[in-house]
Amino acid sequence: RYWFYNSPVVRGAIDCMVRNSIGPGIKMQSRTSDEGWNRATEEWLANWSLACDVRGLLDWNTIQQVATRTMLRDNELFILLADNGDGWPMLQMVEAHRCETPDYLQGEKRVIDGVRVNAQGRPLSYYINLGQDDKFSEVQAPDLIVLAERDRADELRSLSRLVTCLNLIQDREEIITNTMVSVKRASAIGLALEGEGTAGFFGNDTTNSEGITTDRIFGGGAIWNVPNGRKIREIKDDRPSPNLTEFMDQFLRAVASGLGLPYEYLWKADLSGPSQRFVLAQAQRRFDEISQAIITQLVSRVRLWALAKAIKRGDLTPPRGMDRWWDVAFHTPKKSTIDAGR
Fold first, then answer.
1. Taking the CB of residue 206, how many other CB atoms lie within 10 A of it?
2. What would the pLDDT profile of 38-83 be if each residue is shown by its tens digit?
3. CA separation (Å) from 329 to 29, 36, 197, 303?
4. Which among 285, 288, 234 has a CA at the least distance from the CA of 262?
């Protein structure tokens, strides 16, 4: 999270992936054999999408964006399936750090990293920190969605993909910071007066704590005189050098690889047409992976759950004899291309 908010490269890469994977939100289109039912469900979902957040801050499309961004940054997000007490379905997003094992359960062998499991390792419930001293809510697994991209078969909690390149990200930012300090210091010193003695151009000078002696002179570019035995030398600094620029590319490649994107998509724009098509195709595969994860884990499940709650409330009534009242088509953003209009 620190580098997401302090590294433009990390933030830009994740935002780019969100933008191309779900755009303003994945759209849901009812696809049953009954057009009247299709219209009714879409109208109900359109109204629900404006009032589905427990805190009342986000709509359904924004929840999708925040959830996707959080998954790519932390690789884990919990979405609690709740209601307002009257059966109206509500969603509550909980960030990963709030799921942890309470102190009073530290000896429990079947509570691992805030997750209670059965003998086969199936999650039964999750312990959510309420933000107060040692106060937790135990949420049953059916009432919660865990949004994550899994790496291991046995994992209960997931690690961010950025862990593979965090050290390199820090190295890059430190190099940039140190180089910037050097460039700023070099730009603050224009000329050096070489020779014996300590007097400055006009006799008065100051020496700072680092041993640098300077004159503070404001005026035109002309120098009235140069004392005997001295000469003026212009101080030049060629940082950052072209070699540094090439050296820094490896850090950008690490970020791109860690997130599953081609480096050229993230940073390099001067590619030929065929090369751009290849890079876009590789990037699109990653975007499709993300959108499919969001559809499978979040959007389809939330839609089915919300419609079931609406039916239970009496807001919707499926036609008699309809077996698959939940059938739907999901629409993601158009694929990126350099051939638009062809």
1. 10
2. 999 999 999 999 999 999 999 999 999 999 999 999 989 999 999 9
3. 5, 16, 83, 12
4. 285
CA distances in angstroms from 25 to 141, 171, 275, 280, listed in the order given: 26, 35, 30, 21
Q: 304 CB contacts (<8 Å, ≥6 apart)?
A: 326
Q: How far apart are CA 49 and CA 21, in angstroms?
A: 20
Q: List CB contacts of 300: < 8 A, sequence separation 6 or more.
A: 328, 330
Q: What angle do CA 42, 45, 51 make, to 5 degrees?
A: 155
How many of the other CB atoms lie within 10 Å of CB of 289? 14
| Residue showing tokens 């079931």 | 308
**Spans of all domains in the chain:** 2-96+145-164+272-331, 166-259
Instruction: Judge contact between 290 and 333, C-beta under 8 A.
Output: no
Token pair, residue 147, equals 């949004």
Whether the predicted model's global pTM rises above the 0.85 cut: no
Paired residues of 321 in beta bridges: none
